[in-house]
Amino acid sequence: MDYGMIGKIKKAKEYAQQLDRIEMSSFSVTFQGTNNSHEVSYDNGQWQCDCDFFQTRGHCSHTMALEKVLVGLLPD
User: Fold this and answer.
1) Digit-coded pLDDT (tens) for 36-51
2) Can you tell me whether residue 21 is helix, strand or coil?
3) Distances (CA, A) of 14 to 44, 52, 57
4) Residue 39: C-alpha distances to residues 5, 49, 56, 58 (Å)
5) What's the whole-model pTM score?
6) How far is residue 28's CA from residue 66's CA, in Å, rounded to a whole number?
7) N or C: which end of the chain has fewer CB within 10 A?
8) What is the DSSP letter of 2?
């Protein structure tokens, strides 16, 4: 491994500990639910999920779980 890569690995570790440097604005994931897989996305503060519960309530277990996992990365 060259010295350049060693420096980048060190910097990556520092960045990973400084979550305030990261602002997530959009992403999409496939969430493996208990019964089915669901497509979940986040775009500019708005969640979307293809499960039936989300369609009627605007929140679901899939989006709430991701909110917990991504604490500190999503804007308040």
Assistant:
1) 999 999 998 899 999 9
2) helix
3) 26, 41, 39
4) 35, 6, 16, 14
5) 0.75
6) 11
7) C
8) -
